[in-house]
């Protein structure tokens, strides 16, 4: 069953629409006689057992007339909609076949017409086409066309500009075939959906036209015409207007809903819609978090509800960062590293839940603090730098404003003082002419400059920790170098610790002193950065290093790869998560998950059969 | 000789005061059955160059020739059928028609190559899928059911279906995970050797390009600043921009935090 | 961008030029509207039984016996001068008829617009904030249902319903006509509620979109208080879409006045239009078309300018 029929709204809308269509077909046959029977003696009687909606000025049964009018109302609206859609599609396709200047003129004309509300256009076109049903249909169709034309043009442009059409063009596919095979199918779906929605609107517009007397003329009648008749007697006999009124609204709603649901269908559905976060209970003995560290995490887990049950993309993560240290957290997509960062920054997206045995930032227990205090602590002590500098700053506010408000809010500084501090920080991150830049909007800065501004923003307070989640991935390699140098400089000058998260091992190895490797939501290895290249013990770390080419990779051998894919959180295998892909896997690995064991300073390992890089490591392999 | 030759290729966007020269008089050769790498940072013009060579972007001056015939530029001949230069796009999400099955997409390339008979087309599609190490059963799948790496392979198969002389791979692994990258790059190398097709590989990742290419060209601000055999370029770069590029590449195993050499003139200015 | 930006004069000049061209097109279209009619408009207005001499005299009086080009130039000149001819049914100058009634329609439309925006923006934003990321699906459903039905009910129907409940039933407000402040309540509500619901839906969607953007995550990471988060960071980015839809809302309100005025016997341009069309009083219809059309074009001009002023990212000013 199509997805949308499963929702109550979807089912209701479809049912209604179908009911109306059936009515349109059988209405006149079943109730035609009743609707036409004139009974002068029973003029304008109110609601009664014989006439559920009363009678009109000629004693005819109103309910019957409403039911019979379905055919006229629906078919006229459908005709107008289809004509308008067709005309609009043709009109919207014209610019693409004309030479450029003519095409642009037509596009401008379409844009101009779209600005006019449909009803207004229809009203004045009714003058041209003449008062009456036929004129009203043409008028409404003409009023609908510009909207469809614009939609067609936009859709066609986005499809013809796409890579797959470009690929077909370079294959030598002829334009006509391109149109038929690629453009039309991709454009048809949104257009059809729009037609359904337009049908609802046209129904209402037609009712309006008939209500004014411009549409269906007596003795024919549709709902709008009945409303026109019923209006004059509304104070004596409201049912005569109520009947057609309700019919118009119901039909309009049904088709509009249908169109909207269709639009939702073709869009992306959110899987966790309607799922509540999982309530987490903390272990009654919180502990394991060191108060001397810039950051101390222990037992961190994150759960998300899914239609198929809860998943745990981050499980039992723990590490410490001393003041002034740069620690790297590496992993591929799906390893949980970004979620870990989000958890520390208290920014895990809804409906995720975070549980931690201990989570301390420069001594403050983040779980135990009340909300207001937590906000102040995080605002002052934590600076966050995210991946995409192009979208990290608010395009509607000046750069200086966004920096200054940190001081204003968390240090109570005045506007002036905060602004000059902002300018000072911008200079500290080597942005030239900082006073001028502070007055600019983010759109006027390059990507590298924006990332520096974000770092400067983090320096407005005195952060104990800078959380940098893939800060250089979106930047060029020369710019990346400068940003990494900047992070080191900040650490040198202010003693802030840095948690650097990246998928790029080389980047991390260059600046960090210690590296944590995550796989499938868990930390699998921790080691000094200097030993990363040659002395990593975990098979995954080794494999990861081997797969990345560097400037000295042997060109005569194929690049190393890791077969298979990391498991998704909903299909975690028993035992070690890497075992299915591990070249050193043993029988035990698929059954027992190896715990993360400390092997002396700065080394931890979760593996039953690691590479024997040192005596201590060998000792763990039992 | 199927040498692809770019001669003083220039691409300008906009006009009057707002004109920008995105590709500035680039001359480059891709010898038959060789791999040439093109590296540059964002804004260097390398992607525009790729699209210009593939005929998807109009050129303002210069030309591209292959086999003595002019592909792009003045006096170009407009042969029917697929172009001998096929471009494989960067984004696996938009490179395939979301409503066409993979088999149909590749089949379009096969049909463009002149194979009319349905059965022959199906067989050829199957052969291509195997060539790119994809399960032939995937021919009836839609792009959204495939992973990024699989989609990229399918796009590769479509490009090869037209039996091109030159394949342009524009950042084809940039959107893929590290551990998947290697597989696609290995595939590219195998295909290049098996079919003897020339490859122009474009990337911002110098290490990837050095691994695959026989010679490397470096682009900066629309201009070609250096062209040299791969090994030579990496060990003895001559242009200062090339040197700063190489110095900026982070190295694993450099032995902990390293500082970059500050003497290059490019590093001194406050850019980016 | 602010007014001091050096691109501002160029942008204004382009916009005004476009406005002028559109007006010219409008005048031409309105002129052509009447002349595209089949048959003889004068005879249609005077009736089949009118003597030929009267018809001829009327035609001469309206200038319809001149060449098409002459008529067009006269029409253009008249539009600029403010002379739009005389009504065929009442004999009054069209400009006088319009002048008497314009204020009533403008007051109605303007008030309705303000009411619609005042309801929609806060409601939409609040709904967007409460239902972001898929929170509170029942609230989203309720909001969607209420606004959905409100948009589906045509304004004239709503007017009829309101009259029935408040005027006839409760006798709290006047049934029809334009008078004191209480006579505005029902017509304005009837006109405003549908568009308010439609606007609220758009504002909710835009709010939800803006709240999911990266810069909102940055703002939350800075632990800004909610007030700053929503009013300083989110609201400016909502404005462009809200403004654009408001413009469309205002334009459709203008259209809605035609229907609502007829329900409430409001002495505005709408009731005039409803009377003139069946009477085939073409000079009046043309004049009304010009007024309504120019109104829509003016609204678009104002909205475009406002959007360019407010949205620093907007590329409209490049065009």
Model description:
- The complex is a heterotrimer of chains A (622), B (272) and C (319).
- By secondary structure, chain A is of the alpha/beta class.
- Among the domains of chain A are: 3-266, MetI-like fold; 529-551 and 558-622, no CATH class.
- Helices cover 51% and strands 11% of the residues of chain A.
- Chain A contains 21 helices and 13 strands.
- In chain A, the strands form 2 sheets. An 8-stranded mixed beta sheet of chain A has the order 7-8-9-3-10-11-13-12, sandwiched between helices. In chain A, strands 1, 2, 4, 5 and 6 form a 5-stranded antiparallel beta sheet that branches.
- In chain A, a hairpin with a 2-residue loop joins strand 5 (358-361) and strand 6 (364-365).
- The longest helix of chain B has 18 residues, at 178-195.
- Chain B is an alpha/beta fold and 272 residues long.
- In chain B, helix 3 crosses helix 4 (148-161).
- Chain B is globular and about 55 Å long.
- Chain B has a 6-stranded mixed beta sheet with strand order 6-7-8-3-9-10, sandwiched between helices. A 4-stranded antiparallel beta sheet of chain B has the order 2-1-4-5, covered by helices on one side.
- Chain C has a domain at 94-278: MetI-like fold (Orthogonal Bundle).
- In chain C, helix 1 (8-35) runs antiparallel to helix 12 (282-310) and helix 8 (182-211) packs antiparallel against helix 10.
- Residues 315-319 of chain C have low confidence and may be disordered.
- Chains in contact: A-B, A-C.
- Chains A and B meet through helix 7, helix 8, helix 17, helix 18 and helix 19 of A and strand 6, helix 2, helix 4, helix 5 and helix 6 of B.
Compact summary:
The complex is a heterotrimer of chains A (622), B (272) and C (319). Chain A has helices at residues 3-6, 8-36, 62-97, 100-114, 118-129, 133-160, 163-170, 175-212, 223-232, 239-266, 337-344, 371-381, 389-392, 399-411, 415-428, 434-439, 447-458, 477-494, 505-511, 539-547, 615-620, and strands spanning 295-304, 311-321, 326-330, 353-355, 358-361, 364-365, 382-385, 465-469, 497-502, 514-519, 522-528, 597-598, 604-605.
Low-pLDDT windows of residues of chain C:
315-319
Largest sheet of chain A: 8 strands, mixed
Number of strands of chain A: 13
Radius of gyration of chain A: 34 Å
Distinctive features:
heterotrimer; B: 272 residues; alpha/beta; 6-stranded mixed β-sheet; 33% helix; globular; disordered C terminus; C: 319 residues; mainly alpha; MetI-like fold; 0% strand
């Amino acid at each position: 069953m199509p997805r949308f029929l499963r929702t109550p709204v979807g089912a209701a809308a479809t049912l209604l629409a179908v009911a109306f269509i059936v009515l349109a077909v059988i209405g006149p046959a079943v109730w035609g006689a009743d609707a036409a029977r004139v009974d002068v003696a029973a003029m304008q009687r109110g609601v009664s057992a014989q006439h559920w909606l009363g009678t009109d000025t000629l004693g005819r049964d109103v309910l019957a007339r409403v039911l019979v009018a379905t055919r006229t109302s629906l078919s006229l609206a459908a005709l107008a909609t289809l004509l308008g859609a067709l005309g609009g599609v043709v009109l919207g396709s014209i610019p693409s076949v004309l030479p450029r200047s003519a095409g642009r003129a037509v596009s401008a004309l379409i844009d101009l017409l779209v600005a006019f509300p449909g009803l207004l256009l229809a009203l004045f076109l009714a003058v041209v086409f003449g008062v009456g049903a036929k004129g009203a249909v043409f008028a409404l169709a003409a009023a609908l066309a510009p909207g469809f034309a614009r939609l067609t043009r936009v859709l066609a442009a986005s499809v013809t500009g796409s890579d797959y059409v470009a690929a077909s063009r370079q294959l030598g596919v002829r334009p006509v075939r391109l149109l038929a095979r690629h453009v039309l199918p991709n454009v048809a779906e949104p257009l059809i959906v729009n037609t359904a929605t337009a049908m609802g609107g046209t129904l209402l517009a037609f009712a309006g036209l008939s209500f004014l007397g411009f549409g269906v003329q007596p003795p024919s009648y549709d709902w709008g015409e009945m409303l026109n008749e019923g209006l004059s007697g509304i104070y004596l006999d409201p049912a005569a207007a109520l009947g057609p009124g309700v019919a118009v609204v119901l039909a309009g709603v049904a088709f509009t809903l249908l169109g909207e649901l269709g639009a939702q269908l073709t869009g992306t559905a959110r899987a966790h819609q309607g799922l509540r976060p999982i309530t987490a209970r903390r272990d009654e003995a919180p502990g394991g978090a060191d108060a001397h560290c810039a950051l101390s995490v222990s037992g961190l887990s994150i759960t998300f509800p899914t239609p198929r049950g809860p998943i745990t993309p981050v499980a039992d993560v723990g590490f410490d960062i001393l003041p002034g240290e740069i620690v790297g957290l590496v992993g591929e997509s799906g390893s949980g590293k970004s979620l870990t960062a989000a958890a520390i920054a208290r920014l895990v997206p809804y409906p995720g839940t975070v549980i931690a045995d201990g989570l301390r930032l420069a001594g403050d227990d983040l779980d135990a603090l009340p909300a207001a205090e937590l906000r102040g602590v995080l605002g002052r002590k934590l600076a966050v730098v995210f991946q995409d500098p192009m979208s990290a700053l608010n395009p509607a506010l000046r750069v200086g404003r966004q920096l200054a408000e940190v001081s204003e809010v968390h240090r109570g500084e005045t506007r002036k003082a905060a602004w000059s501090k902002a300018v000072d920080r911008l200079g500290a991150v080597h942005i030239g002419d900082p006073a001028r830049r502070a007055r600019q909007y983010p759109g006027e800065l390059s990507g590298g400059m924006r990332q520096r501004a974000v770092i400067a923003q983090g320096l407005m307070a005195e952060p104990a920790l800078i959380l940098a989640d893939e800060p250089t991935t979106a930047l060029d390699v020369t710019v990346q170098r400068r940003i990494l140098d900047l992070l080191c400089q900040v650490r040198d000058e202010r003693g802030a610790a840095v948690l650097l998260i990246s998928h790029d091992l080389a980047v991390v190895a260059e600046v960090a002193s210690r590296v944590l490797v995550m796989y499938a939501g868990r930390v699998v290895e921790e080691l000094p950065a200097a030993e990363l290249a040659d002395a990593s013990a975990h098979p995954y770390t080794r494999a990861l290093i081997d797969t990345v080419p560097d400037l000295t990779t042997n060109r005569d051998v194929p690049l190393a790869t890791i077969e298979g894919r990391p498991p998704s959180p909903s299909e975690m295998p028993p035992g070690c998560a890497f075992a299915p892909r591990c070249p050193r896997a043993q029988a035990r690995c698929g059954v027992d998950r190896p715990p993360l064991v400390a092997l002396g300073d700065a080394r931890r390992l979760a593996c039953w059969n690691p590479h024997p890089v040192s005596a201590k490591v060998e000792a763990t392999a039992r | 000789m199927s040498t692809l030759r770019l001669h003083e290729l220039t691409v300008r966007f906009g006009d009057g005061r707002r004109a920008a020269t995105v590709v500035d008089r680039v001359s480059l050769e891709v010898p038959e059955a060789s791999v040439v790498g093109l590296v540059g940072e964002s804004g260097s013009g390398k992607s525009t160059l790729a699209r210009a060579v593939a005929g998807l972007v109009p050129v303002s001056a210069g030309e591209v020739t292959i086999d003595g015939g002019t592909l792009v530029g003045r006096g170009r001949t407009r042969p029917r059928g697929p172009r001998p230069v096929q471009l494989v796009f960067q984004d696996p999400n938009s490179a395939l028609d979301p409503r066409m099955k993979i088999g149909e997409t590749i089949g379009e390339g096969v049909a463009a190559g002149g194979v009319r008979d349905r059965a022959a087309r199906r067989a050829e599609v199957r052969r291509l899928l195997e060539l790119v190490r994809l399960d032939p059963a995937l021919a009836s799948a839609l792009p959204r059911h495939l992973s990024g790496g699989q989609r990229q392979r399918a796009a590769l198969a479509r490009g090869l279906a037209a039996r091109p002389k030159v394949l342009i791979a524009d950042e084809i692994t940039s959107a893929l995970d590290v551990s998947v990258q290697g597989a696609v790059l290995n595939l590219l190398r195998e295909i290049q050797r098996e079919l003897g097709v020339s490859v122009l590989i474009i990337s911002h990742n110098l290490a990837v390009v050095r691994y695959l290419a026989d010679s490397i060209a470096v682009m900066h601000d629309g201009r070609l600043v250096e062209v040299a055999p791969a090994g030579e370029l990496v060990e003895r770069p001559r242009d200062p921009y090339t040197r700063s590029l190489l110095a900026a590449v982070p190295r694993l195993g450099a032995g902990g935090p390293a500082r970059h050499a500050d003497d290059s003139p490019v590093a001194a200015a406050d850019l980016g | 961008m602010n007014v001091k930006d050096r691109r501002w004069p160029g942008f204004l000049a382009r916009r005004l030029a476009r406005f002028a061209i559109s007006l010219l097109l409008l005048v031409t279209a309105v002129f052509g509207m009447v002349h595209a009619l089949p048959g003889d408009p004068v005879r249609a207005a005077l009736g089949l039984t009118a003597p030929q001499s009267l018809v001829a005299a009327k035609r001469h009086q309206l200038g319809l016996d001149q060449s098409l080009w002459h008529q067009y130039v006269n029409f253009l000149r008249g539009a600029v001068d403010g002379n739009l001819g005389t009504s065929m049914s009442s004999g009054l100058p069209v400009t006088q008829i319009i002048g008497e009634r314009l204020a009533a329609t403008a007051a109605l439309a303007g008030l309705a617009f303000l009411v619609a925006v005042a309801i929609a923006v806060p409601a939409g934003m609040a709904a967007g904030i409460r239902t972001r990321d898929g929170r509170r699906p029942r609230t989203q459903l309720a909001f969607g249902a209420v606004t959905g039905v409100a948009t589906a009910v045509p304004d004239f129907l709503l007017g009829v319903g309101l009259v029935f409940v408040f005027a006839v039933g409760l006798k709290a407000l006047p049934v029809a006509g334009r008078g004191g402040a209480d006579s505005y309540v029902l017509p304005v509500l009837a006109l405003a509620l549908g568009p308010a619901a439609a606007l609220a839906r758009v504002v909710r969607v835009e709010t939800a979109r803006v709240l999911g953007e990266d810069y909102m995550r940055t703002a939350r990471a800075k632990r800004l208080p909610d007030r700053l988060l929503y009013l300083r960071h989110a609201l400016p980015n909502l404005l462009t879409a809200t403004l654009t839809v408001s413009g469309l809302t205002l334009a459709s309100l203008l259209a809605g006045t035609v229907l609502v005025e007829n329900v409430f016997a409001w002495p505005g341009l709408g009731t005039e239009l409803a009377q003139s069309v069946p009477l085939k009083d073409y000079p009046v219809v043309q004049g009304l078309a010009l007024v309504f059309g120019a109104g829509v074009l003016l609204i678009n001009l104002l909205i475009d300018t406002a959007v360019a002023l407010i949205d620093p990212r907007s590329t409209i000013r490049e065009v």
